[in-house]
Design goal:
Elements (H helix, E strand, L loop, with lengths): L6 E9 L4 H21 L5 E7 L2 E9 L6 E9 H4 E2 L2 E2 L1 H10 L6 E6 L2 E10 L4 H15 L6 E2 L6 E2 L3 E8 L2 E2 L3 E4 L2 E6 L1 E3 L8 E3 L6 H7 L6 H18 L9 H7 L6 E6 L9 H11 L3 E4 L7 E9 L6 H26 L4 H5 L6 E3 L3 E2 H18 L4 H13 L7 H5 L6 H9 L4 H9 L14 H20 L13 H15 L5 H15 L6 H23 L4 H7 L5 H9 L1 H17 L2 H15 L22 H23 L2 H19 L12 H19 L18
Parallel strand pairs: 11-14
Antiparallel strand pairs: 1-3, 1-11, 2-3, 4-8, 5-6, 7-8, 9-10, 11-12, 13-14, 15-16, 17-19, 18-19, 20-21
Length: 727
């Protein structure tokens, strides 16, 4: 085939204004999907995926005119069916006819299910433009997102109605029609520019003209270029105003996908509004108006009475745009000022009494009922953690007031300020600083990557709040199913474990789950028994602990299994009685593996553990009296017994102190003796015919296993130096 110059392909899907979140998602999806499908078809090219609020586009340069021929293999019948006495059967001949194959093109290969016939063929490549027409429709319909809509009277669904379609192969229009009953959108070479800065259709002569043509029509189609322009404009305006703007925020990406021709506009508001709490002002600016606050400096501790908004209008109309935005922000801040003054006219305690009018959940009563439960639970947790009397008092007060701000006017208007306003109002009315801090921090962490609470009051009340929610919602059958978790209970359980880790709190979580399950069943009409509710919660928390160890802390899967073995309920329960200890043991095993020390004891301990399963000794026994000295026969088993007798007191002390390195040292000292016990001239037969001798030897191995089990179940560990992913 003669060589020809590379070709360019353009697909543009023109729409009504798309949500910024979908634009971001669509870009991500196409960045993965399009190169992947091109590779599958044997095509190579430079892929550029672009988007604005009114369009999604892909430009692919450097494409060949023809798809390469593709070698394919088709699985056929089993060899035993395909041939009889060396001759092809009707089954094989029928398979070849259906695939237009020849007998000489087959190959017989061994598989797990026996020998199978494979047909080897070469599929001629299609013209690239023909293939891309088919792929373009797949790329459009493959996009996923929330709240897709139908328009017209058909079934075609997309984030917003599709209004035009551009499909070009160099200078030729490729035929593609999106149909949805009476709605019919056919591909063309006409696109559309900015709503204000451009008039009428823009006819593209060649696919390569696309970016430049839209630039002239007031559309920066490349989101990276748009974002860089926004950065530069904001930085310039902030510097000229003597301030600083934080651009490492999600708002930057959002506004990038809200505009086609960005123009930064500096606006101002009255300095009197700076008397409001800083978070109130920034919430109004960012969350409600999509404005960038202008700080005095990079510490973000104080604001200037300024904001920067990104306009999608005519740059010549900047003064008018500025005035309009200033009127809007002035009204919003005036509302916030009114709410703040009205709320602070009463102490925070006043709002606590109104929680009885707010429903927590239909079957679980009001927020006042929830506060009563979590206050009692916070007191129990504080007692279990041996908190000082002053801390207990602060915890109880924090729990009593932690939801009071929910019924204030400010939080009613700006729900995202819950907790923060509670802290502000608690400070204003003279509550203890520990209480004010705890009210805010009991909501932490609010999302993945958010910081956990730092104060004791925030930690304890945060634990009580989430445990109450988990027990109550599980109790009425609202537990997560599959990927559905409408009440964010997985996040709540993750937060419980994270808070315990952060505070180094050795709290018996399992006991609290069981106690709260019983308390719930006494107070409410439960969907299941207290024992079954506790079991559900135990399994749920075990899975969350497993996930956090693997995904957040990077512990290898088999070491997580050693700490939380799925087939050993006793060791699973142990992990939940102290999740801090479970974390420490998992990290300790990881360090042992990385240093190579794990393999020094693994073979011995694992072999002993496998044989110990034949015995009757429990996994928690560390008493040397489990072995009867008078029934010891061989010198090596007597030596084994003496060594165990020597190290067991040290192991028990190390267990109490969680000094797991001492246990490993003890196991290392035993390894040579146990090796001789198993193999060589001094070795003995563990499974001896004499039942008494056999039981004694199994007891020796059980004690060794139990020493190692203080750290984890060595039977769950894979014998390798590094295990980086789950099989």
């Amino acid at each position: 085939m003669p060589k020809s110059s590379p070709h360019t392909f353009l697909l543009e899907v023109g729409t009504e204004d798309l949500p910024a979140r979908f634009v971001s998602s669509a870009l991500h999806q196409w960045h993965i999907l399009i190169p992947q499908t091109l590779k599958e078809q044997g095509l190579m090219g430079e892929v550029k995926v672009w988007a604005t609020p009114r369009r999604l586009a892909v430009l692919i340069e450097g494409l060949p005119p023809q798809q390469p021929d593709q070698a394919i293999e088709i699985k056929g019948p089993a060899a035993s069916v395909a041939f009889r006495e060396g001759e092809p059967t009707p089954a094989l001949l029928g398979f070849l006819r259906s695939r237009q194959g020849r007998l000489e093109d087959i190959e017989i290969r061994p598989t797990e299910k026996g020998e199978v016939v494979y047909l080897k063929q070469v599929r001629p490549g299609q013209p690239t433009c023909q293939l891309l027409t088919e792929l373009a429709q797949q790329w459009i319909t493959a996009l996923e997102g929330s709240r897709f809509m139908r328009w017209g009277d058909g079934e075609l669904r997309f984030s917003r109605p599709i209004r035009w379609l551009v499909l070009l192969w160099n200078d030729q229009v490729l035929p593609l029609v999106l149909e949805s009953h009476s709605v019919r959108i056919a591909s063309d070479r006409a696109t559309y520019g900015h709503r204000v800065l451009s008039q009428g259709a823009i006819v593209l002569n060649h696919a390569q003209d696309y970016e430049a043509a839209l630039e002239k029509a007031g559309v920066v189609v490349n989101p990276e270029v748009r974002q860089q322009r926004i950065r530069e404009q904001i930085t310039t305006l902030a510097q000229e105003a003597g301030g600083w703007v934080d651009l490492e925020v999600p708002l930057l990406e959002e506004v990038t996908h809200l505009v086609e021709w960005p123009t930064a506009v500096l606006g101002s508001f009255e300095a009197q509004f700076l008397a409001l709490p800083l978070e109130v002002i920034t919430t109004v600016l960012v969350s409600h108006q999509r404005y960038f606050p202008v700080y005095t400096d990079a510490t973000r501790q104080a604001l200037l009475p300024l904001f920067i908004t990104i306009s999608n209008g005519d740059p010549a109309a900047t003064p008018l745009i500025r005035a309009g935005n200033e009127r809007v922000i002035r009204a919003r801040l005036a509302d916030a000022e009114f709410f703040y003054k009205a709320d602070t006219a009463q102490p925070l305690e006043h709002y606590r009494n109104k929680l009885a009018t707010v429903t927590f959940q239909d079957e679980l009563g009001s927020m006042a009922d929830k506060v009563e439960r979590l206050t009692a639970l916070a007191r129990q947790i504080a007692t279990a953690l041996n908190c000082a009397a002053a801390d207990v008092a602060a915890i109880e007060r924090t729990a009593a007031l932690c939801k009071a701000d929910l019924v204030t006017q400010m939080v009613g208007e700006f729900p995202e300020l819950q907790g923060y306003m509670g802290q502000v109002y608690a400070t204003v009315c003279g509550e203890d600083p520990a209480v004010a801090t705890g009210i805010f921090e009991h909501y932490l962490p609010r999302f993945a990557g958010d910081r956990p609470p730092q104060s004791l009051t925030g930690q304890v009340v945060g634990l009580a709040d989430r445990l109450d929610t988990l027990v109550c919602l599980f109790g009425i059958g609202l537990c997560p199913t599959g990927s559905s978790d409408p009440f964010a209970l997985r996040r709540a359980a993750n937060a419980v474990i994270t808070i315990l880790w952060q505070g180094e709190h050795h709290l018996n979580l399992l006991a609290f789950l069981e106690e709260q399950a019983q308390a719930f069943c006494r107070q409410f009409t439960a969907k299941l028994s207290a024992a079954d509710l506790a079991q559900q919660l135990r399994q749920f928390f075990s899975q969350r602990l497993r996930t956090l160890l693997q995904e957040d802390l990077g512990i290898e899967y088999d070491l997580v299994n050693a700490v939380i073995p799925e087939d050993q309920p006793a060791l699973q329960s142990r992990a939940l009685t102290d999740v801090v200890d479970a974390r420490d043991r998992a990290q300790f095993l990881q360090k042992l593996r990385q240093s190579g020390e794990l393999m020094a004891i693994y073979p011995t301990v694992n072999r002993a553990a496998r044989l110990a399963r034949q015995g009757t000794l429990g996994t928690d026994c560390l008493n040397i009296r489990a072995v009867k000295a008078k029934h010891l026969e061989a010198p090596i088993e007597k030596e084994f017994y003496a060594a165990l007798k020597d190290i067991l007191p040290r192991v028990q002390q190390a267990q109490e102190q969680r000094a797991y390195g001492e246990i490993v040292a003890a196991l290392v000292s035993l390894a040579p003796i146990v090796s001789r016990f198993f193999d060589g001239e001094e070795s003995v037969l563990v499974m001896a015919e004499d039942a008494t001798v056999r039981a004694n030897r199994l007891a020796l191995l059980s004690l060794l296993r139990n020493c190692a089990a203080i750290i984890g179940d060595f039977g769950s560990i894979v014998q390798t130096e590094s295990v980086v992913s789950s099989p």
